[in-house]
Amino acid sequence: MKELLEFIAKSLVDNPDEVTVHQVEGERSLILELKVAEDDMGKVIGKQGRIAKAIRTVINAAAVKDEKRVIVEIIQ
Q1: Helix (H) or strand (E) holding 58
Q2: Half-sphere exposure of 66 (CA within 13 A, CB side)
Q3: Buried b (16+ CB within 10 A) or exposed e, 16-54
């Protein structure tokens, strides 16, 4: 999951070197914390949060086979 989120985020932003993903794993859930450059925050969130919602949808679809709940947090 971490690699997938990192790939998607790096594809969207202007500064792919500043993209970091921190993974916190629980028993039945997984939290992915995405950090991007301040200038790229709008590109990851999108208008009215549409891109962020799409990213969360793709990550959750990929997590179905692992039977885990994935939470994607975008952090400044």
Answers
A1: helix 50-63
A2: 14
A3: eeebebeeeeeeeebebebbbbeebeeebbeeeeebbee
> How many distinct structural domains can be found in the chain?
1
Indicate the pTM of the whole model.
0.90
Domain extent for 23: 2-75
Query: 51: domain CATH number?
Result: 3.30.300.20
User: What residues contact 13, with CB distance under 8 A and at least 6 apart?
Assistant: 19, 36, 37, 40, 43, 44
pLDDT tens across 30-69, in order? 999 999 999 999 999 999 999 999 999 999 999 888 788 9
